[in-house]
Amino acid sequence: MPKFKPYDCNQSAMIVINYEDQLQSGTFEHAIHHLIDKRIDLSAFDVHYQNDDGGRPVYE
User: What domain of life (predicted)?
Assistant: First the structure.
């Protein structure tokens, strides 16, 4: 008789989400995404990340 791992129906599930696909043109979320990515200069925050020589990479 094979041994199976016990199955728990109350467990969490991980779902892969592509945020670019979720942003529909003409919505408020799409406008915020466009402003932050294309229009606003966020380079002032770069001084807070000093990991050029080592350390974990960060997201832009």
Answer: Bacteria
Range with lowest mean pLDDT among 13-17, 24-28, 38-42: 13-17
Handedness of CA 12, 17, 19, 22 (dihedral sign): negative
Angle 5-15-30 from CA coordinates, rounded to 5°:
170
23 by Cβ neighbours in 10 Å (0-12 / 13-18 / 19+) ranks as middle
Going by C-alpha positions, the residue among 38, 39, 57, 37 that lies closest to residue 49 is 57
Based on its alpha-carbon atoms, the radius of gyration of the chain, rounded to whole angstroms, reads 21
pLDDT single digits (tens) 21-39: 888 999 999 999 899 889 9
